[in-house]
Amino acid sequence: MSFADILNNGWTSFARTLRLTDTSPVLNLGKSLFVGLCATITLSACTHPTAVETIQREGVLNVVTIDSERTLVEQDGQTVGFEYELAKQFADRLGVKLRMYSVDTIDEVYESINKGYASFAAAGIALNIQPNQLISPTYASSSTIAIYRQGSVKPKTPKDLIGKKVAVIKGSPAEHWLTVTTQALPELTWEAVSSPDIISLFAELDTQNFDILIASDHDYEAYQAYFPELRIAFEGLDNHEIGWLFTKSEDLTLYKKAVDFLSDPTTTEQIAYLQEKYYGHQLRLDFVGAKTFKFHTNKRLPKYRKTIEAAAEKFEQDYYLLAAIGYQESHWNPKAKSPTGVRGFMMLTRPTAKDMGVSNRLNAEQSIQGGAKYFSRIHKSLPERIQEPDRTWFALAAYNVGRGHLEDARILTEQAGKNPDQWADVKEFLPLLQDKRWYKKTKYGYARGYEPVIYVQNIRRYIDVLRWYDQRQEEIRIAKAAEEPTTEEEKPASVHAPVIML
After folding, report:
1. What is the mean pLDDT of the chain?
2. Residue 44 pLDDT
3. The Solute-binding protein family 3/N-terminal domain covers which part of the protein (predicted)?
């Protein structure tokens, strides 16, 4: 069902299309409101329930977001995303379930809250605040930048954009900046694209379908590693705050609840945790590193992919994780060696190799199997209370620096009143293992504590990019297959991404 259908037919038709099972609270909204308006015939006047009371009576909080992997995504059978997790915590605070659904464009975000289909928008992007709208306390900021492809002429000022093919997301603050800029530069033109995801515009810029992309620095940080040829031309064009967007009304009870929630010190800590979880690793690949990674992904990785996949299956680990470890350790070079004595594809020490049953560290298959086995052992040995993804980040740190040094850092973290089971906290204390004032108090002593922090963040970034490369190749394969002539029976059915109902 299209967004227009939602607007025309309302939630009832919308939910029926999605085969919604918990229909009674939301789909009988009119009926429940009527009952709530006149709770007893003895009252001389009707009492209107507040927005919060209505939500709590229905047991569900409806929130709209933009269709993006940075806000809401299904991954390994679970719903994840910064905005999803933050909104879910707010729903939990209200004592209701979260129903978050995604739309394709910014205009549809505005429509959703203006028409009342969602209580507020949590889009994870800077939005142009309309006169009839309110924004919550903000939890991030972004600025508008101009992006070009290296090898073409680099524009240095807005005036240099005249005569260029410029693209921007329709309805975004970046388009607003262009609109304002044309007052001084009327010759400047651009194409406003109603794209479901900004990454598609990065891909078009990379293939030079246009010359310049005006976007946010957040978007560039998220995707620059995927497109190493794309660079910032100039930046700091304007700044925007990011928060939840509400429609102004006489009833501000829900808005005030959101203000209280986002201003709570506990929420502030959780926001910092979520920012580290989803965005903390994004700047780990610079231009040179991204180009080298892309080169080796095309030239070296295919030779070892099946071996890595077999090890991942045998030891119940993620293929992309093991591939990323291999790149971080040796750049997928089975003959690699370091001055410290570690060798091979997974850079195993001699004692570790012996313990894992590896007789020849320079044999790629043995090294990959041994490294996967070693990582799996560390992963399983961690305290059961440590949850994912922190569990994997801790296992990676221990793989790099040793389990004992990791435990020293966790103890220091706990002594400082922080959470020893969260990577976001422990990574702040690992570097202290290089400081004599701290490591002399620990059981295992000195360690190069900065290294495991960089190690983990690098691998997280490699995982992201490897996943995206594969997704991109699959999209290209499907597109090519769709262009081939087919019989009527062979034509694939049209598939639309479902709205997430939780």
Report:
1. 83
2. 39
3. 60-282
- Span 252-257, average pLDDT: 95
Angle made by CA atoms 70, 71, 75, in degrees to the nearest 5 = 75
* Half-sphere exposure of residue 298: CA atoms within 13 angstroms, side-chain side: 6
Asked if residue 267 is part of any domain, the answer here is yes
CB atoms within 10 A of CB 199: 19
State residue 46's pLDDT score: 54
Structure tokens at 123: 């889009």
- Answer whether residue 483 is part of any domain: no
Q: Could you tell me which of 15, 17, 47 has the C-alpha nearest to residue 28?
A: 15
Domain of residue 409, CATH code: 1.10.530.10
Distance CA 461, CA 283 (A): 8
- Cβ within 8 Å of residue 449, ≥6 positions away: 401, 405, 409, 429, 430, 431, 432, 433, 434
Is 23 in contact with 15 (CB distance < 8 Å)? yes
Q: Is 329 tagged catalytic?
A: yes
Are residues 423 and 348 part of one domain? yes
Range of the domain at 305: 287-456
125 and 33, same domain (yes or no): yes
pLDDT of residue 286: 58
**214 and 189 in one domain?**
yes
pLDDT (average), residues 161-172: 92
pTM over 0.85: no
- The answer to whether position 91 is within a domain reads yes
**96, 55 contact by CB (below 8 A):** yes
Cα separation, 440 vs 199, whole angstroms: 48
Q: 224 near 288, Cβ under 8 Å?
A: no
| Percent of the chain at pLDDT exceeding 90 | 51
State the CATH number of the domain containing residue 36.
3.40.190.10
Phi/psi at 239 (5° precision): -120, 145
Q: Which helix (H) or strand (E) holds 140?
A: strand 140-149
**Which of 204, 241, 329, 483 is an active site residue?**
329
Can you say whether the dihedral through the CA atoms of 231, 235, 241, 247 is positive or negative? Answer: negative
Separation of CA 247 from chain center: 26
Residue 502 confidence (pLDDT) above 70:
no
Which helix (DSSP H) or strand (DSSP E) does residue 305 occupy?
A: helix 301-314
Pair (263, 341) in one structural domain: no
- Measure the CA–CA gap between 379 and 373, rounded to whole angstroms: 10
